[in-house]
Structure formats: structure tokens, C-alpha cells
Q: What sequence folds into this?
């Protein structure tokens, strides 16, 4: 009887470990709209936003070390150099480097159904790239 209880406890712990790993499974964000906003040095805000409809898909790997972004004409990979979770705002932030060497600061905001990226354009101007999320799965 003691052996059976011991085996049950071991199986129970293994089961919890398996369930715990599934909490951090791969997650995908389906987006429908892309928008670019410029940084205004005077107002200290992003504005003058221009966007367009675009279907795209972000897929974060289960260990949050990389994600891919796919649009109709191309697929890009981003490698995470640092990450942080902000419990107050329920956002996930990532400093990343793209597969072609560009640097971005990504903000995944599932509560507000947005993905935002801050980067410098070819002239060194700060830009905000915002994706509107249709579904998270």
C-alpha cells in the first residue's frame, strides 16, 4: 500500500510538470492591420499614423527565444536578446534582432489586442509600428 501511494505521488508530480510545460506552449497572434507612427520631438508622442489592412501572423516559440512574422510576401525571424513581463499592464516586452540584423523593441499586449514595435528608420527617426490583433491562439 505504501509503494502504491509513493508511485501515485510520483505520477502526480510528473503530471503537474507536464501540465506546467503546456502553460508556456507556442502562441500565435493573427493580425489584420499594420500602422506606422512617427515620433514628434515637440509633443513627445507618436503621431501622424498611416496604416493599411494586412493579414499577418506572429508565432512565438515556447521558450520565448524567437518569433516569426509572416505576411503574404515574406517571413522574418526575430531573435530575443532580452524579455520582460510587466504585470501591472499585462504586457510582454522583448528586445530583438531580426534575421537581417535590425534591432527592435517589441511589446505584445494581448489585453488590448495589439503588437507594437519601436525602431529607428533609415534616417535615425524613432518609429512606432503597430499591429492590430484579430485572434490569439
A:
Amino acid at each position: 500500500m505504501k509503494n502504491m501511494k509513493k508511485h501515485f505521488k510520483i505520477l502526480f508530480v510528473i503530471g503537474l510538470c507536464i501540465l506546467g510545460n503546456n502553460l508556456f506552449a507556442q502562441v500565435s497572434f493573427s493580425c489584420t492591420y499594420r500602422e506606422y507612427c512617427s515620433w514628434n520631438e515637440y509633443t513627445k508622442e507618436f503621431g501622424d499614423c498611416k496604416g493599411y489592412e494586412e493579414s499577418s501572423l506572429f508565432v512565438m516559440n515556447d521558450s520565448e527565444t524567437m518569433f516569426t512574422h509572416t505576411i503574404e510576401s515574406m517571413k522574418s525571424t526575430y531573435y530575443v536578446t532580452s524579455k520582460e513581463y510587466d504585470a501591472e499592464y499585462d504586457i510582454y516586452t522583448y528586445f530583438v534582432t531580426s534575421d537581417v540584423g535590425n534591432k527592435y523593441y517589441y511589446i505584445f499586449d494581448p489585453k488590448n489586442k495589439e503588437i507594437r514595435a519601436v525602431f529607428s528608420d533609415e534616417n535615425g527617426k524613432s518609429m512606432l509600428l503597430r499591429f492590430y490583433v484579430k485572434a490569439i491562439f
Residues 2-22 form the longest helix (21 residues). Residues 4-23 have pLDDT under 50 and may be disordered. DSSP finds one helix and eight strands in the chain. The beta strands are 27-40, 45-60, 66-70, 75-86, 91-98, 103-109, 114-120, 126-136.
